Amino acid sequence: MISFEISQEQKQIMELACKFTKNEIIPVAAEYDTKAEMPWPIIKKAFEIGLWNLNIPEEYGGPGLDQVSEILIYEELAYGCLGIFGSFAGNSLALTPLLIAGTDQQKKKFLEPFSEKPKLAAFALTEPNAGSDASNVSTTAKKDSNGYILNGTKCFITHGGIANLYTVFASTDRSKGIKGLSAFLVPGDTPGLTMGKKEDKMGDRASHIGEVILENVRVPLDNLLGREGEGFKIAMKTLDITRPTIAAGAVGVARRALDEAKNYAKERIQFGKPIADQQAIQFMLADMAMEIMSSRALVWQAAAKIEKGEPDTMLSAAAKCKASDTAMKVTIDALQVFGGYGYMKEYPMEKLMRDAKITQIYEGTNQIQRIVIASQLLK
Ligand code: CAA
């Protein structure tokens, strides 16, 4: 049996995140979207009240939250702004390989500084020719007696070029293909690591996405995560844990769009009465609500499995796919409820629709999620 009751503690943390979103994120979301800037003041405030680096365990100075609490917080943050949520989720994604495969010594060394002040981490897997085909990484890591020398270019990296710590996936033996990929911890100030192009995005604009260039970047042997050749599996296990985070963000966006559409429909008078009195609008709102409820149920289920120590590849992919398709559909329909006003920048709908699109793409396109689901089904 699965209980969908959340504990008193989880309720409190959700309320804290909801208040934080209302007071700190919603009032400035449009401004960050226009300027496409990193939300530093928000990150600092979140850090002060324990809403930053949600996945760092208490023993390394972090909040040590359970997975369901994390999901509840992420939904609230994305309700305020998906781009601002992106920074929180980007850090969580980048630190997950360390949590999965790091030794106690590595965790102490690399996680504790994140608990001392707000810092950025970046998950550097994607390359120009290794997007959906994540195994096709051409970044190399050559071993010598002192450590590894990394060379290559990573693209579409959250916090790329501005992070304090990178989890870099590189090939230690190209002849072995997937089994030659390895994961490395690379401090942001390592000589040879530089920022390439900062991306100018359609939506999700408050999160920084950039290219990372690695030119003879030298790291000690101790910075290898797990063993040589385990990189691909570490990356996949990471995504099993983090895809529900993206899904929670997508639910937040969809919920916000429904709330905006609901409120507008009650106020907008046409044909002498609020458009909410029209069954055509009511059906649209009802469909949106159903999609959101079913998406959230999947997200919670995926999070509960992770919390139990049993991340479920199919469930995580299904949650990400379903919730992001929901975010896209709901934002399109909610904008339709606004009619012409929805299309104007003065109203929040066009931003929500632009933001929703990325949730169907990042952390694996929804076509990849369907491949993952089908391959688990047919196993
Ligand atoms: N857990 C553990 N092991 C796994 C696994 C998982 N979830 N998935 C695959 N593996 C293992 C397999 O068991 C297999 O190992 P063996 O050979 O020992 O059996 C090995 O990995 C290879 O598996 P596949 O044959 O399934 O690999 P594939 O090449 O066919 O690719 C894929 C699988 C699902 C398509 C994968 O490449 C994928 O997920 N691609 C999408 C990548 C992605 O999501 N990128 C997002 C980057 S992060 C981002 O977007 C955020 C940002 O910063 C903007």
Automatic annotation (TrEMBL):
Requisite cofactors: FAD
Limits of the Acyl-CoA dehydrogenase/oxidase C-terminal domain: 229-377
Organism whose genome encodes this protein: Desulfotruncus arcticus DSM 17038
This protein's UniProt keywords: FAD, Flavoprotein, Oxidoreductase
One Pfam family, short name: Acyl-CoA_dh_M
SUPFAM superfamilies found in the cross-reference section: Acyl-CoA dehydrogenase C-terminal domain-like, Acyl-CoA dehydrogenase NM domain-like
Family: Belongs to the acyl-CoA dehydrogenase family.
Keyword Flavoprotein included in the entry's annotation: yes
Entries under InterPro entries matching the protein: Acyl-CoA_DH_CS (IPR006089), Acyl-CoA_Oxase/DH_mid-dom (IPR006091), Acyl-CoA_Oxase/DH_mid-dom_sf (IPR046373), AcylCo_DH-like_C (IPR036250), AcylCo_DH/oxidase_C (IPR009075), AcylCoA_DH/ox_N (IPR013786), AcylCoA_DH/ox_N_sf (IPR037069), AcylCoA_DH/oxidase_NM_dom_sf (IPR009100)
Stretches assigned to the Acyl-CoA dehydrogenase/oxidase N-terminal domain: 7-114
Residue intervals of the Acyl-CoA oxidase/dehydrogenase middle domain: 122-217
Coiled-coil ranges from the UniProt annotation: none
GO molecular function, one term: flavin adenine dinucleotide binding
Protein name stated in the entry: Acyl-CoA dehydrogenase
